TrEMBL record:
<dbReference type="InterPro" id="IPR001753">
    <property type="entry name" value="Enoyl-CoA_hydra/iso"/>
</dbReference>
<dbReference type="Pfam" id="PF00378">
    <property type="entry name" value="ECH_1"/>
</dbReference>
<dbReference type="InterPro" id="IPR029045">
    <property type="entry name" value="ClpP/crotonase-like_dom_sf"/>
</dbReference>
<protein>
    <submittedName>
        <fullName>Enoyl-CoA hydratase-related protein</fullName>
    </submittedName>
</protein>
Length: 272
């Protein structure tokens, strides 16, 4: 995909199986306007067809991950147009969750409102120590977060902490985000890309069918009871037995164990 066709995005292949998708409206802190939502949806649809993609990293250009919706644009929209704009963002979020490859949110700065909700839809969140998170809609727009934050956040941090974030509308530091549990790692800003790529490369080195199925199971079983979750696990796992990839992996296991001793070890941490 040629980057010249985008005015609000940049897609780069850093490794053969790892892509970095950057939201590019840095002068407006990557606020999501209608154009960005359309382009993001089209780009994610394209990535759904990229069978070699094993990890997608999503980030923002400049000092912010994203400021949420472009409120200057929203201010002149009718209620119906506002709902259509929100639907476009929701479509992007659904595409992130349904992508075969895991998606890592590389949160380089403030992630506010809808941009934070996009990060919540990703599989892993790695944050710079400069990152800030907020769902301020109850204070700023006279409503509440409408792109899934109040649904996804309690599943990560529990109802009480989700209530604290959503109902106060206040900002939370990267350290607080790690403590709460909706950020998996906080790293020094200057090492953000390197640390994120360490995780991405570890994922990309694994069996892509196993990774994709595990992502699907973790996501879908979150709302299931134990028996239903285990039934889904078996439905996803059983077809993998006896495949050429599985047979070869079992045969190669002793040498793979030896090689794994030399892989970089990522220590999740909150103190940069």
């Amino acid at each position: 995909m040629n980057n010249s066709q985008w005015s609000t995005l940049r897609l780069a292949k850093l490794d053969p199986q790892i892509c970095v998708l950057t939201m590019c409206r840095p002068d407006l802190r990557n606020a999501i306007n209608a154009e960005m939502a359309r382009e993001l949806e089209a780009c994610l649809l394209h990535l759904h067809d990229e069978r070699d993609l094993r990890v997608l990293v999503l980030t923002g250009e400049g000092s912010a991950f994203g400021a949420g919706a472009d409120l200057k644009e929203r201010a002149v929209l009718t209620p119906a147009q506002t709902q259509n704009a929100r639907a476009a963002v929701l479509a992007c979020i659904e595409l992130i969750e349904s992508l075969r490859a895991p998606v890592i949110a590389m949160v380089n700065g403030p992630a506010i409102a809808g941009s934070f909700e996009i990060a919540l839809a990703c599989d892993i969140r790695v944050a710079s120590d400069r990152a800030v998170f907020a769902l301020p809609e109850v204070r700023n727009v006279g409503a509440f977060p409408g792109a899934g934050g109040p649904v996804r956040l309690p599943r990560l941090v529990g109802r009480g902490r989700a209530n604290l974030m959503v109902l106060t509308g206040r900002s939370f530091s990267a350290q607080e985000a790690f403590t709460f549990g909706f950020v998996e790692a906080v790293v020094p800003h200057q090492r953000l890309l390197d640390e994120t790529l360490t995780i991405a490369r570890q994922i990309a080195s694994n069996n892509p069918e196993g990774v994709s199925a595990a992502k699907q199971l973790i996501l879908q079983s979150n709302h299931l009871d134990l028996a239903s979750g285990m039934a889904l696990s078996r439905a996803l796992r059983d077809p993998m037995d006896g495949t050429p990839a599985a047979v070869e992996a079992v045969r190669a296991w002793p040498s793979a164990q030896r090689a794994s001793k030399h892989l970089p070890i990522y220590n999740f941490r909150s103190n940069p």
